[in-house]
Design a protein that fits this description.
Layout lengths: L3 E4 L1 H8 L3 H13 L10 E2 L7 E5 L2 E8 L4 E9 L10
Length: 89
C-alpha cells in the first residue's frame, strides 16, 4: 500500500531553490517515503504533533503522515541549521 507524496507550497519552494545534485539526493529519499513513511533513522520532533524528521546528510526533510488519507505531507526541506526556524510551536 503506497502513500502519496504531497508538498506544502513553502516546502516546494524550498526544494526548488536547492542545487540540482542536492535536489536529486533528497528526491530519492522523499520518493522512498511513499513505500515506507517510517524508515529507520527518523525522529519524531518534540513539541510538534505528528511531525517527523528525516536526515539526509546536512539537510532535513520535515513531514507528516496522514494515515487515513495515505498521504505523506512534506512541510519543510532545508539545511539542518535553518529548517527548524519558523515552525509553529
Amino acid at each position: 500500500m503506497a502513500y502519496r507524496i504531497e508538498f506544502t507550497p513553502k516546502a516546494k519552494r524550498d526544494f526548488n531553490a536547492l542545487d540540482k545534485p542536492i535536489r536529486t539526493r533528497l528526491a530519492r529519499r522523499i520518493d522512498s517515503l511513499a513505500e515506507n513513511p517510517f524508515p529507520q533513522g527518523i525522529k519524531k520532533l518534540a513539541g510538534e504533533k505528528d511531525l517527523y524528521r528525516l536526515r539526509v546528510g546536512d539537510y532535513r526533510i520535515l513531514y507528516q503522515v496522514q494515515g487515513k488519507r495515505l498521504v505523506v505531507l512534506v512541510v519543510g526541506i532545508g539545511h539542518r541549521g535553518d529548517v527548524y526556524r519558523g515552525l509553529k510551536r
